[in-house]
Amino acid sequence: MESKMVSPLKPTILLFTASLVAAAYLTSSEAADSKPSFEDNFDIMWSEDHFTTSEDGQIWHLSLDKETGTH
Q: Which among 60, 69, 55 has a CA at the least distance from the CA of 41?
C-alpha cells in the first residue's frame, strides 16, 4: 500500500482561499445592507417643505412652485 505525502503548502493555500471567500462575503453583505439616504448625498438649501421621502427613504419627491421653481 502506497502512502501519499501531503504537501505542507496545500493546507496553507486552502486556508488562504477560505479566508478570501469569507472576507468577500462579509464585505458584500455589509454593502448590500447599507442603503444611503438622500441626506447622505445632498443638502437641502431652502424650501425643505418642497421635499419629502417615502417611508423607507428610497423614493424622493421634489415639488416646485412659481416662487421656487423659476428664476
A: 60
Residue 48 predicted with pLDDT over 70: yes
Q: Is residue 48 part of a domain?
A: yes
Number of domains in the chain: 1
* Alpha-carbon Rg for the chain in angstroms: 27
Cβ neighbours for 35, distance < 8 A, ≥ 6 positions apart: 57, 58
Q: What is the DSSP letter of 4?
A: P
What's the whole-model pTM score?
0.34
Residue 53 sits in which domain range?
9-62
The mean of the pLDDT values for the chain is: 75
Give 59 or 11, the one with higher predicted confidence.
59
Residue 58 in any domain: the answer is yes
Cell triple for 12? 496553507
